[in-house]
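User: Assemble these into one structure.

Assistant: Restating your components, then the assembled model:
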Amino acid sequence: MTDLSHLRDDFPILHREVNGWPLVYLDSAATTQKPVQVLDAVDAFYRTKNANVHRGAHTLSAEATAAYEGARAKVAAFVNAGSPNEIVFSRGATTALNHIAYGWGLNHLSAGDRVVLTVMEHHANVVPWQLLARYTGIELVYLTLDDDYEVDLTGLDDLLDERVKVVAISAMSNVTGTLGPVRPLVEAARSVGALVVVDAAQLVPHSPTDVQDLDADFLVFSGHKMLAPTGIGALWGKSERLEEMEPTEGGGEMIADVGLYESRWAPVPQKFEAGTPPVAQAVGLGAAVDYLTAIGMETVRAHEHAITGYTLKRLAEVPDLKVYGPSDPTRRGGAVSFTLADIHAHDIATILDQRGIEVRAGHHCAKPLMRYLAVPATARASFYLYNTTDDVDRLVDGLFEARSVFGFDA
Amino acid sequence: MTDLSHLRDDFPILHREVNGWPLVYLDSAATTQKPVQVLDAVDAFYRTKNANVHRGAHTLSAEATAAYEGARAKVAAFVNAGSPNEIVFSRGATTALNHIAYGWGLNHLSAGDRVVLTVMEHHANVVPWQLLARYTGIELVYLTLDDDYEVDLTGLDDLLDERVKVVAISAMSNVTGTLGPVRPLVEAARSVGALVVVDAAQLVPHSPTDVQDLDADFLVFSGHKMLAPTGIGALWGKSERLEEMEPTEGGGEMIADVGLYESRWAPVPQKFEAGTPPVAQAVGLGAAVDYLTAIGMETVRAHEHAITGYTLKRLAEVPDLKVYGPSDPTRRGGAVSFTLADIHAHDIATILDQRGIEVRAGHHCAKPLMRYLAVPATARASFYLYNTTDDVDRLVDGLFEARSVFGFDA
Amino acid sequence: MSSLDELYRQVILDHYRNPRHRGVLTGPHVHAEGLNPSCGDEFSIDLKVEDGTIADVAIQGRGCSISQASGSMMTEAIVGKTLHDARLLTTNFKLMMGIDVGADPLDPERPGAVLGDLEALQGVRKFPVRIKCATLPWTTLADALDQAET
Amino acid sequence: MSSLDELYRQVILDHYRNPRHRGVLTGPHVHAEGLNPSCGDEFSIDLKVEDGTIADVAIQGRGCSISQASGSMMTEAIVGKTLHDARLLTTNFKLMMGIDVGADPLDPERPGAVLGDLEALQGVRKFPVRIKCATLPWTTLADALDQAET
Ligand SMILES: Cc1ncc(COP(=O)(O)O)c(C=O)c1O
Ligand SMILES: Cc1ncc(COP(=O)(O)O)c(C=O)c1O
């Protein structure tokens, strides 16, 4: 396995203890830890060039604007956007998906139009469409999963007709690790003139991403899941789509002119960035992108395939443990959900936490999926570049202890 | 004048040079500088307890949640909210005003209903209402200013009738420093059953604020204008109002349950906080509130009255200089806009910037006001607790140089 | 005893795996439901009240060992008690969890004050994030008691 | 010379205070408007084109000394020029501002290449935030030229 363990020194939090044990952080699908390089970039911004952006003629403001727009260019390059103007900074993936649903959907969809989702979507890619349905009368249609937790495309041809206007899919499930079949769906959607929205909150942090190559219409992700600060994320959209979109927030910066009763909008992307943006957080995202680029996203992905493979192998040693997700570690992401005998996921999480091992337990903001899988909750271990096989070994030891606490044989 | 100059050591950026001169930062109405106490709090959060909030059963998540909710409680106490649940964290004042316009307005206003604004509003308190007008057919009505740049209430009785459903007013103009007459407007609005929305982006940072005493319905402000990080702000609403409001963003965290086609919302305030919130930035806002509380907001206000008074006095020495704003320094905020002879505001800003003095020039995101004042642009010096009379003296010296560059007698 | 052993006492696992009074009531009864949105735990309760006394109880739910055991033990503790004593027990339980209910601990001699088996749950107190698991059945019960009294 | 003196040359202040060709054209002409949203500077231009040559020009606008002087000097530089030479001049002006227009500097001997008075604006280059002030009239002109050619 690609050894990235030297990177651990960049992450101060990994040196803390939890309940007397060295921290094993296995919750990166929820949020990742931050390297000093990112923390220092944010700190340096505040200490040397903090000012509001775009509005000022003074040196600080020019420097802050250059830092902010520089971050946009970095993010654009990271996902190979056609131009930095195709990147809109948002608070995170959730806000970005809401922007799309409202900003594009409200003006282009109407009663009877259909939006195709999958049952594995995160609430962030479900609820905005439900809200839009209230206002417009659109219908939601769901693709299901097959036996190996892959999105089942068998019924797709029947499903796709001219009523379908949007296909919105997760590129990687935060529960099962399933890779959404973006390419086939883009092709199929094109055939009926539908748009494709990609929830890449779990893809961009973990895998090389090329938006031009994927050829969807919109793609969103969150900074905090890729080493960057909280409070920042990005919405990529094809220029034509962004031009078609209406602003969802009004305020300063997003205007060309404001009259008492009417206003005109600024060009894309400013049109979608009302008010003071999360400037320092964008700078932090730029630094995170630099950090990931220096390692290489191919390397990041290879490391995750390796650690996921190791995890699946080791988890198979634990009796009564069931993994919910694709079996081939190279065809999935590094979020591994499981149940263990009749031990509830929260009890597993508590027992592991007593040994400093942080996993998530619950519905993972994917209640439709939990219902579909007919499981009230799972425990989930999720990985990032700073995790090692030692972490996995400690997880497995902890699971054996959980078995013993609950009276099972080791 | 209350001497707060010892605080300057807390602000690293104040020790940098701009164009060879020690920085004089006079743009705090746009965004404030950050003390090490805030930077350290944010950094420490990432280094010791970073995790996603509300979702996790593990120790880090519990600590992160406690930090985040602790910040909410601090912010609530800072503005004397009835309960922390009356504080919704948002990206900033702009987002908060949009939440109100959409979340409350879309469900409670309809064609012919009126929203009363003033001509001095920031675009953040104009454009959301214009957007709402597109969807609902509401009408906007504006109060104007009197000769001393105070909001003119003489026509108010005639204006207020049962058509008026909302009065949305800035508590302090970011251009003229005018204090919005919140109290009389609350009283008048109550008489016709209208709601009052207060844009307190310039009030909360500069003055003690007691939301229960003001008795409005909603009040918003931004962290970055009060020593806190970018990317965080707050929406305060009376419990009843927040209960009446619909969520404007859908996603994780804001739900009680999500089905395939319908969902139920979490209680207030989570209902309005979809997705991963700006956790570290909220913690930073909490630290900023601690910092300001330790100094005392009465002291902050007194210092600003003093420095504004000194500024008005010294500016009066500059020939051909015209100040746009109330003349009594104790009845206004510390944003001082002016023009100087025929020298355009941008040229003033450039000349001052050459001496390390950072002022803003332009329309200050208040185009309706600029049109009302019939001035295309003003220069603006704005103050905060770290500014001194030396800063003002250097400003005045710079203005004399501007005169000389443009061929006027000193 | 490690804090884990304190948390997962044998009696708790027993109630988790063999919940008492599980099911629904027929005939007149009050019904209340509780949900812990952050973790998804669910709990519902049916109470049959006769002459101010809890004559029968039935529960359903899904969730962790703590919430389910707490509910099961609760049924044993309240059945046969007056509504008033059930309230006292709720107060006492919350106090045991370290929750400030604005009341002092009750006289342990009072019938409503005796937690009995429920004391096995006191280990939860050391696990702050799990306290809401233990209290879910009790807040649901409080809801049912409100209904029974009106 | 200090960079401020380089920026605010006498000739710039002269054009700022006494803009040339200010007003509007009557009779057939093309019209274009430009706006700098971040600072609010406005500029509009009327061009009368005869036989591929700029026969007359009139401008209006509000803004800083740099944008207004740039516009005024521009009118003097383009009047009487062919549309083609006006385009060359635009290119050359942007190059002087340090803007990468994807072209090399033009042969200074070409008529369209001669900036003349406009060279007084080269001090702007040291003030990156002011470059957009200087170029506003030129982007507006480009718009008008597009119209004139179609
Ligand atoms: C697949 C997926 N989509 C969307 C989101 C929402 O991201 P955020 O909470 O950062 O807005 C998440 C993370 O929780 C996710 O895993
Ligand atoms: C009076 C006023 N209202 C609203 C805003 C908008 O605040 P933000 O840009 O932080 O959203 C500002 C600041 O620019 C302001 O001065």
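Residues 39-293 of chain B form a domain with the Aspartate Aminotransferase; domain 2 fold (CATH 3.40.640.10).
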